[in-house]
Design goal:
By secondary structure, the chain is an alpha/beta fold. The protein folds into three domains: 1-77 and 93-128 and 825-840, no CATH class; 80-92 and 129-481, Rossmann fold; 535-809, 3-Layer(aba) Sandwich (Rossmann fold). Strands 2, 3, 6, 7, 10, 11, 12, 13, 17 and 18 form a ten-stranded mixed sheet that branches. Strands 21-20-19-22-23-24 form a six-stranded parallel sheet, sandwiched between helices. Helix 6 crosses helix 33 (811-823). It is globular and about 90 Å long. The structure holds (1S)-1,5-anhydro-1-(2,5-dihydroxyphenyl)-D-glucitol.
């Protein structure tokens, strides 16, 4: 492994891997230069945003050596690289993370002081976060990129550079209002546009057959429309290592600024139209989390970024004179859900049509390089494309899919002679109703591995979602439980806890979370538990002041902070939590509460703009908050807060400040959940169902440190199969009847009896997410929580054990599992040497 030679012409002396250029003097100089030359500003008149930009540019400069060295290593010594294909990367703010991973946070603080800025946080606050994802899936992709780099694994994350990310959420009269996310408006300093590596992508048109040089009939695609993908690269630096991987996000450009023919004949608008149409491709992120809308533009986005990415991978082989038949030895392609599943057909098309490789060989290459992660069992999330839309947009891909399907069905016919049912069930084409292409089937057939994202979920994939596939190819199915990066979610988000952890177990916990097990020795140490509690209090004070600034609500940091932050979805059951609050409210009102644990219940999360019931749930929570927060009887006992515009940045404030984490989805519905992991690491206790990764969390922290309630997945199935009736549960629970009555009479809607009717009708009608069935158990469990809260020592001990035992949920562990069992890649350290004398 040849060291990267730093005596290459690199501006500035930011080159020494250890220190040169990393001290505060050099950072100050770099900032001054960027203020002057890049931003055209004088230091004397620089705004906080100018200083943020200048510092970010100076920090990005300091990533470049590692970034280029990491690419050189692969060029010189080819090694298998991970291509993580994802329609979403919710990467969060970049400055703090890069400072942490470079190890120059202190130096940056010192440099800022010389511009009169006393606290780094005032500069971090102005950073606009790129909301290039909806929720769990996009954030997971970001954690995985950070872990890949930290583990020194060569990797590229491929995605879309949406001009508008997930909308910003305002709350007006209790309702969610969506506002366009203009994250690029002030300039975004972290990307490197690479127009010379652009790719062409076709759409529409027709296929035609022709005879090649050897007289063989072949098929080819004649698209009617084209777009250009321009890569914008974001460096992803690992923690205190030289590996700096890449996030390559594609922006769509028009092929020609104008159609000159149309322009010349006077059709000015017609000429501009196609340009505008091509550029809308990367305009906006679809704001649905786990629901498939089947929209034409969405399929275009998917094909656009997948095609660019695969072309980019193939081109990288050509550049290094590696035959494309070696593809699978150099790239391992991970499909993050079915959003990039078109990759199976597109890789086949490129190999067959572009590189003239025969079917069998091409299929072998494809199936040896592609793997698929499933993230959901919800039927509404499983992508299906209308056949007519598909053939209109991607006619050649459809031909290829038919061929893949035909060969697959032939295999099935041999195995299950005469069984047409199974053929229909497994076919890529759904023949029922208006015919459609099932993307999960395409991905499953084209992948060498299919994994779920938590033990229970992976098991359900095999038993419920794709049982016949699992029987056919048991060796393909596996599990990799999700994880989250401890750099962002503990080290950055929770500095006071991090300091305590470092003092207790040393600094290595950041890359080896298992070391936190050592904290178990302290579980009965009153002084240590006190210190641990102090870190939590600090987080709560910060959140309390944030809540006050954003909502005007005053909350008491010594109350129990009970938090549910995640996308709003019926299966996640924010409404179950809301109903429970009403029950507590009623008890206080009726004087029947033995309420010894003052609580602040905090919600946060966005609803898909077209998801009526989710938006009504937000309105419902705000209705309850209004009544509770303005009632003097609730003073000092109960507060309800809906935090607007939940995003990564806000998550960093919320996780360290939480005492109780709400993970209350209907069992069998949440594939994994990752918020549950962030809370546990930060010492929150969980109240939760046996769903997703909660199951593993409870096993790890041990059942006495987890508040379990609710029906299990099999009990839910049983209810479902035996004509579940929510009424029977309501009849058994007088408190629930009271709660419902209060909503009915309009108590939380200023007397409006209609407002929440759709919600009530759903709950008392068919209650699709079994809220009524779990209500009583949940309420009882909440009483237990309150009782525990009054024994602070016991609470702190449980909280400490959650932190101590949460190491398994580091995304480093998940990535190691992917590397070993699916990708077969190993770390490749990047060495950098330089002779400082020579370059300074
Ligand atoms: O993916 C997370 C899981 C979570 C699951 C989520 C998800 C999306 O955010 C979007 C689409 C989709 O199919 C699944 O709901 O349970 O933790 C990461 O795996």
């Amino acid at each position: 492994n040849e060291p990267f030679d730093l005596r290459l012409p690199t501006p500035g002396c930011y080159l020494d891997p250890e220190k040169a250029g990393m001290d505060s003097d050099a950072l100050f100089k770099g900032m001054t230069e960027h203020l002057f030359f890049t931003l055209g500003k004088l230091a004397t008149s620089a705004s906080p945003h100018d200083l943020y930009m200048a510092l970010s540019y100076a920090v990005k400069d300091r990533l470049m050596t590692r970034y280029l060295a990491s690419q050189e290593v692969i060029r010189k010594k080819p090694q298998k690289t991970v291509a993580y294909l994802s329609a979403e990367f919710l990467i969060g703010p970049q400055l703090s993370n890069n400072l942490l991973n470079l190890g120059i946070t202190k130096e940056a603080e010192d440099a800022l002081k010389r511009f009169g800025i006393e606290s780094l946080s005032t500069i971090l606050e102005v950073e606009e976060e790129p909301g290039l994802g909806n929720g769990g899936l996009g954030r997971l992709a970001a954690c995985y990129m950070e872990s890949l780099a930290s583990l020194q694994v060569p990797a590229v994350g491929y995605g879309i550079r949406y001009e508008f990310g997930i909308f910003n959420q305002l709350i007006r009269d209790g309702w969610q209002v969506e506002v366009t996310d203009k994250w690029l408006k002030g300039g975004w300093p972290w990307e490197l546009p690479q127009p010379d590596e652009s790719c062409f992508v076709g759409f529409g048109g027709r296929t035609e057959s022709y005879r090649d040089d050897k007289g063989k009939y072949r098929s080819r695609w004649v698209p009617s429309e084209h777009a250009i993908g321009v890569p914008h690269d974001v460096p992803v630096l690992g923690y205190r290592v030289n590996t700096c991987d890449r996030l390559r996000l594609w922006r769509a450009d028009a092929t020609e600024s104008f159609d000159f023919y149309a322009f010349n004949i006077g059709d000015y608008y017609g000429a501009v139209e196609e340009k505008v149409a091509s550029e809308t491709l990367s305009k906006v992120l679809y704001p649905n989390d786990g629901t498939d809308e089947g929209r034409r533009l969405r399929l275009k986005q998917q094909h656009f970024f997948v095609s660019c990415s695969l072309q980019d991978m193939l081109r990288s082989l050509e550049k290094r004179s590696i035959p494309v038949t070696e593809f699978a030895n150099h790239w391992t392609v991970q499909l993050n859900d079915t959003h990039p599943a078109i990759a199976v057909a597109e890789l086949m098309r490129l190999l067959i049509d572009q590189y003239q490789i025969g079917w069998d060989k091409a299929w072998n290459i494809t199936t040896s390089s592609v793997a698929y992660t499933n993230h959901t069992l919800l039927p509404e999330a499983l992508e299906k494309w209308d056949l007519s839309l598909f053939s209109d947009l991607l006619p050649r891909h459809l031909e290829i899919i038919y061929e893949i399907n035909w060969r697959f069905l032939q295999q099935l016919r041999l195995r299950y002679p005469g069984d047409d049912k199974i053929l229909q069930k497994l076919s890529i084409i759904d023949e029922e109703g208006s015919k459609s292409v099932r993307m999960a089937h395409l991905a499953t057939i084209g992948a060498h591995h299919i994994n779920g994202v938590a033990a229970l979920h992976s098991d359900l994939i095999k038993r419920q979602l794709l049982p016949e596939f699992a029987e056919l190819w048991p060796e393909k199915f596996t599990n990799v439980t999700n994880g989250v990066t401890p750099r962002r979610w503990v080290a950055l988000a929770n500095p006071s806890l991090s300091n305590l952890l470092e003092k207790e177990v040393g600094p290595d916990w950041i890359t080896n979370m298992e070391l936190l097990k050592k904290l178990e020795n302290k579980k009965d140490d009153a002084n240590f538990l006190q210190e641990f509690e102090e870190t939590k209090l600090r987080g709560k004070r910060k959140l309390a002041s944030f809540i006050h600034t954003k909502t005007g609500i005053l909350v008491d940091p010594s109350s129990l902070f009970d938090v549910q932050v995640k996308r709003i979805h019926q299966y996640k059951r924010q409404h179950l939590n809301a109903l429970q609050i009403i029950a507590q409210y009623l008890r206080i009102k009726n004087g029947t509460s033995n309420y010894k644990a003052p609580r602040t219940v905090i919600f946060g999360g966005k609803a898909a703009p077209g998801y009526f019931m989710a938006k009504l749930i937000i309105r419902f929570i705000n209705g309850i908050a209004d009544v509770v927060n303005s009632d003097p009887d609730m003073e000092g006992l109960l507060r309800v807060v809906f935090l607007p515009d939940y995003n990564v940045k806000l998550g960093e404030i919320v996780y360290p400040a939480t005492d109780l984490s709400e993970q209350i989805s209907t069992a069998g519905k949440e594939a994994s959940g990752t918020g549950n992991m962030k809370f546990a690491m930060n010492g929150a206790l969980t109240i939760g169902t046996l769903d997703g990764a909660n199951v593993e969390l409870r096993d790890l922290v041990k059942k006495e440190n987890f508040f379990l309630f609710g029906k299990t997945e099999s009990e839910i199935m049983h209810l479902k199969n035996n004509s579940y009736s929510p009424k029977t549960f309501i009849e058994k629970c007088p408190e629930l009847q009271e709660v419902i009555r209060l909503i009915e009479i309009g108590h939380f809607s200023n007397g409006d009896k209609e407002l929440f009717k759709p919600l009530l009708n759903s709950l008392t009608g068919n209650d699709p997410f079994f809220v009524m069935a779990d209500f009583e158990d949940y309420l009882n469990k909440q009483d237990e929580v309150s009782n525990f809260w009054n024994n602070k020592k016991a609470w702190n001990k449980m909280a400490l054990l959650n932190t101590a035992r949460s190491g398994y949920f580091s995304s480093d562990r998940s990535i190691r599992e992917y590397c070993e069992s699916i990708w077969k890649v190993s770390p490749m350290p990047v060495e950098i040497t330089c002779d400082i004398e020579e370059i300074t």
